[in-house]
Design goal:
Elements: H1 2-17, H2 31-34, H3 37-41, H4 52-63, H5 65-75, H6 83-90, H7 101-112, H8 116-119, E1 122-123, E2 129-130, E3 134-140, E4 146-152, H9 156-177, H10 179-184, H11 186-200, H12 203-216, E5 223-224, E6 237-241, E7 246-247, H13 251-256, H14 261-279, E8 282-283, E9 291-294, E10 302-305, E11 311-312, H15 316-330, H16 334-344, H17 353-368, H18 377-388, H19 397-416, H20 422-438, H21 440-457, H22 461-516, H23 527-545
Parallel strand pairs: 5-10
Antiparallel strand pairs: 1-3, 2-3, 3-4, 4-6, 7-9, 8-11, 9-10
Helix pairs in contact: 1-9, 4-5, 4-6, 5-6, 9-11, 11-19, 14-19, 14-20, 15-16, 15-20, 16-17, 17-18, 22-23
Length: 547
């Protein structure tokens, strides 16, 4: 808790130091904050010389990798930011200050357990690029291949642990402050983000992710993934093929190469939906610093993806739900959207569907009044999020990564081709995917998938059949025994009912004999004693011997 407090204090001091108060809408805050914190933050504001975007970038860099990641995400949303701010934040994608090359060399030698000159024919200690988590150096293998060597920043786990601890503290505060805070499920979101960013610190996992993505797009005309050199990969070091291409954010270079920008933007959308729905494995950190373009065929440009540290996946239920929701949006079927939200459990089961439908329509219909190309999916999500507050809709942590990636894709697509119509590009793909889920092709795929398991169980079928028949036979025997026992019990009950009066009479006779006989007078038998003895013998016969 104390560590989180110190970290929070540093963040506040950074806000003041870089004059980031210009981004805070003090006019909308309560008066006691406006006239206290607002007054303090205004001190020295006029002396701030750097522009807003540069101050924001420097502040994020000083606060560490988590904040740099946040700036990278923002940099792709030029529809939400001024150009000056977006241009500055774009520098966070691959122009973060580097750490010394000799430290990178020491990390490589420690992890790969060999001197650099034995590992590589050539190694450049000057970094080629530097990002928030790692930096890369160029090298050449002794076999002649040109490669890049990625190295994790030293002592970065400690900084990230502090930030994650602060995020958990803030998340618990938000969750306990109000019902809206609980609905946002901030603790689950932070847990999901912690899992994601800790994975990014393990380059062995990134190498495995890269290998899988490469297999998924083998011989693809849409995307190329560089080759991994497995013998040179470790937790803090990864070596991959060096690629050649134009950074996707270098619009001037792409135009100079006569790249078909419309095709490039549409292919980016197709790659995203292919990864999500066809492969269930998608690159979730697709900011411009991780994407290059192969312009060898400018009319059919091909993407090149690097940095596969953050990957996402969805199960079949999530994919089906997402596809049906998106199609319902495209078709303006708000009733279906409302029903899907209730069906999936996003909103409570008792939510009135007609009221939720009306609320969704009020958010989406004004947007559809615009040309499709002017509709921002990000704005739709924000509008729905605000509307959901009335219906206690909860944030789904498993979809947060997907939503962030979709916003990145849309922002990048509009940067490449401002007239990109995300809806028109995605709709045919989703419709085709939905048809495949219920058609004969899907049935055949499931048969192929299950065939090896069935083949392995085939030799066991005779034994399984014999066992099942034996169990059925024993079951019949047990059922017959139970039937006989029930019949016998019925006979005994019937006999008991018939003899019950005699047994009661016998019990009464024994009782009468007991009361008549006086134990003291047994030495002097009288007529009453013979009467008592007779009653006792009759009662014993009726109670015990009479059937």
């Amino acid at each position: 808790m104390l560590t989180s407090a110190f970290r929070l204090l540093r963040i506040l001091l950074t806000v003041v130091r870089f004059r980031l108060d210009v981004f805070i809408p003090f006019a909308l805050l309560p008066w006691y904050i406006r006239y206290t914190l607002g007054a303090v933050c205004s001190i020295g504001r006029k002396r701030a010389r750097k522009k807003r975007g540069e101050r924001l970038r420097l502040a994020l860099e000083s606060l560490g990798p988590i904040f740099v990641k946040f700036g990278q995400i923002l940099s792709t949303r030029r529809d939400l930011l001024d150009d000056e701010i977006a241009d500055e934040l774009a520098k966070l994608q691959d122009k973060v200050p580097a750490f010394p090359g000799h430290i990178a060399q020491a990390i490589i030698e420690r992890d790969l357990k060999a001197p650099v000159d034995q590992l590589f024919a050539e190694f450049d200690v000057t970094p080629l690029a530097s990002a928030s988590i790692a930096q890369v150096h160029t090298a050449k293998l002794h076999s002649g291949e040109e490669v890049v060597v990625k190295v994790i920043r030293p002592k970065i786990e400690k900084t990230i642990s502090k930030d994650i601890g602060l995020l958990y503290t803030l998340a618990h505060l938000v969750a306990n402050m109000s019902d809206d805070g609980k609905r946002l499920r901030p603790v689950e979101v932070v847990t999901d983000y912690e899992y994601t960013i800790l994975d990014e610190l393990d380059l062995a996992k990134e190498a495995a992710n890269t290998g899988l993505l490469q297999r998924n797009f083998t011989n693809s005309e849409l995307l190329y993934v560089p080759q991994v050199y497995w013998d040179y990969c470790h937790r803090n070091v990864m070596v991959v093929e060096r690629i050649s291409g134009i950074p996707v954010a270098d619009i001037a270079a792409l135009n100079k190469a006569n790249v078909d920008m419309k095709c490039l933007a549409e292919r980016g959308v197709e790659i995203f939906f292919t990864q999500v729905f066809s492969h269930s494995f998608f690159h979730a950190d697709m900011h411009p610093g991780n994407i290059f373009v192969d312009v060898s065929n400018p009319q059919k440009p091909k993407y090149i993806a690097i940095d596969c540290a953050i990957m996402g996946s969805l199960d079949d239920a999530d994919k089906n739900y997402l596809a049906r929701n998106l199609l319902a949006f495209f078709q303006r079927d708000y009733r279906m959207v409302a029903e899907l939200h209730v069906e999936s459990g996003w909103v409570p089961k008792g939510t009135p569907v007609h009221a939720f439908e009306s609320a969704i329509r009020s958010v989406c219909e004004p947007m559809f009044a615009k040309p499709l190309k002017d509709i921002s999916f990000g704005q739709v999500l924000i509008g729905l999020f605000q509307t959901a507050r009335r219906f206690n809709m909860e944030v789904q942590p498993q979809l947060v990564l997907l939503e962030k990636t979709l916003l990145n894709i849309e922002g990048l697509g509009r940067q490449l081709y401002p007239d990109l119509d995300l809806w028109v590009t995605a709709k045919p793909f989703l419709e085709r995917w939905m048809r495949e889920q219920i058609g004969p092709k899907r049935v055949m795929e499931e048969l192929r998938k299950q065939a090896p398991q069935w083949a392995g169980q085939l030799p066991q079928i005779p034994n399984l059949v014999f066992t099942a028949l034996s169990q059925m036979s024993h079951q019949e025997e047990r059922m017959q025994a139970q039937t006989d026992a029930i019949a016998q019990l019925g006979k005994e009950l019937k006999s008991s009912r018939q003899s019950l009066p005699f047994r009661l009479l016998g019990a009464l006779s024994i009782g009468a004999a007991w009361f008549i006989t006086d134990p003291v007078s047994l030495k002097h038998l009288e007529i009453a004693d013979f009467t008592s003895l007779g009653l006792f013998l009759v009662g014993l016969y009726l109670l015990v011997l009479k059937p």
